[in-house]
Amino acid sequence: MRTKIAGMGYYVPERIVSNKEFESIMDTSDEWIQERTGIKERRFGKAHLETTTTLGARAAEAAMSDAGVEKNDIDFIIFATLSPDYYFPGCGVLMQRELKMTKNEAGALDIRNQCSGFIYGLSIADQFIKTGQYKNILLVGAEMHSMGLDFSTRGRNVSVIFGDGAGAVILQPTDDDSEGVVNTVLHSDGTYAEELAFINPGCHGGYHSNKEQYGYPDTDFGGVFLTQKMWDDQMIFPNMNGQLVFKMAIQKFPEVIISGLNKAGLNVSDINMLIPHQANLRISQFVQHKLGLRDDQVWNNIQRYGNTTAATIPIAMCEARDAGKINKGDLVCIAAFGSGFTWGSALIRW
């Protein structure tokens, strides 16, 4: 038994935000952003009207329609995001409610593997399907980054990179060994967890730093989730050590791709389409060069959408298929690296 992608769909908000728009609110430029990231524009959702949940729901509807399944055919939901609507509960049940698909009370699993979320979710779904536990799994990757970014010069290294969007797939069993998920490879290393992180507010209470730095009281009873100092000093935004992330990404991306190929007894020359997580166009170009792939063997869309984290791979995969760049029998490789650090790859025979 193998796992096949029976349907795909994606949704990106209507609002297009060009690099030029950032020039009026922070010290940056279109040239600076493009040179460092390759990004020309991204999409932002409608504040207070669209959320990570609603973006995911639109992508899920498209995927179910593409697969020809009804919402109550879904027997399990996996939702990957780093920008959930609530601290808890997760977006899985919120999307289930949004789509009115609670009739069969299908389980919903939320995963927090950031940029690698879709691949981790695919690996989880693959195990459930191979064991026969579920037959129609809805896997969603969705992000509403625009609601939690620092749109000032201080935050420009992070804020210009991210965009909003969602992608989804329907996964089903197949006994045809010429199609479906060939394998998945997953890795993580928490050594540099804080180098790409959204630390505050949180329940760490200054565990990894001087308590006074964040304004935590010296107490052994209870704790403080958000302090006035965090708010006053604008510590409530994501941070990234860009140089370290880039250095690690260009090392781990090729490694995990080769690992998956070796595991399957395949070579780089067998890849028809590589769809890397859209973190930075320069990273994708480095990986392409390292593997010796042609431009037509790699799909990049970061130029138009920015980094949509857990949504980047399903959005790109759906676009590539719709453009006729993925066809029956093709070997598709997807790979990601991100916060954690976590990274992974998957090989899919179309």
Summarize the structure.
This protein is α/β, with parallel strands linked by helices and 350 residues long. The protein is built from 12 helices and 13 strands. Helix content is 32%, strand content 22%.
Topology, element by element:
Elements: E1 2-11, E2 15-18, H1 19-22, H2 30-37, E3 41-44, H3 52-67, E4 76-80, H4 91-98, E5 107-111, H5 117-130, E6 137-143, H6 156-159, E7 165-174, E8 180-188, E9 196-197, H7 211-214, H8 228-232, E10 239-240, H9 242-264, E11 273-276, H10 281-291, H11 302-305, H12 312-322, E12 331-338, E13 342-349
Parallel strand pairs: 4-5, 4-6, 11-12
Antiparallel strand pairs: 1-7, 2-3, 6-7, 8-13, 9-10, 12-13
Explain this structure:
With 350 residues, this protein is an alpha/beta fold. Helices cover 32% and strands 22% of the residues. It contains twelve helices and 13 strands. A five-stranded mixed beta sheet has the order 1-7-6-4-5, with helices on both faces. Strands 8-13-12-11 form a four-stranded mixed beta sheet, sandwiched between helices. β12 (331-338) and β13 form a beta hairpin. The longest helix is centred in the last third of the chain and has 23 residues, at 242-264. It starts with a strand and ends with a strand.
Strand content: 15-25%
Strand order of the largest sheet: 1-7-6-4-5
Q: Give me the CATH superfamily of the largest domain.
A: Thiolase/Chalcone synthase
Q: Termini distance?
A: 15 Å
CATH architecture term of the largest domain = 3-Layer(aba) Sandwich
CATH topology of the largest domain: Peroxisomal Thiolase, Chain A, domain 1
One letter per element, helices H and strands E, the order comes to EEHHEHEHEHEHEEEHHEHEHHHEE
